[in-house]
Amino acid sequence: MQLETLSLMRNLKNQTILLFATGLGMGLIPKAPGTFGSLLGPPLVLGMLWLNLSLPVYLLVSVVLFLVGVYFCDRGAKILGLDDPGCIVFDEIGAFTVVMLPVFDRAIDLRFLCYSVIAFLWFRLFDIWKPWPVRYFDRIHGGWGIMADDYVAAIYAAICLYLTLILLGWF
Q: How far is it, in rounded angstroms, from Cα 46 to Cα 10?
């Protein structure tokens, strides 16, 4: 009986890990799972902004998401028996906090929706294109590599978001 209970607990733990690693199942969408998973990034950031976090706290949350993501992505990949499964999208979700750094202190209004769309497009470009050093980090195995390449892509996207907003006269 104890062996069955242990097996059920292990399955429940694995299911919970996969639930978070796949972005509440968004990563299970067959076409473009990374893009669909990234759609959870803007609501996450919106929630963080609604809480009116200071910059240090915002950055701390981003770092915590990175570290938690290393665990979820590493364990999720091992459960699935794959190195970097496309269905694991926690990395895209957490990295979006970095993309939105240039506008973390802006008002939540219609313009914020525009910021989010522009940020989303820049992030997807760099996450798919993987310019140096994003590609370098993409080659690192395990949770660290899964998370790091997206956070580096997010830095590129944040810079481009900032420059785009300057060009549009919104900054």
A: 34
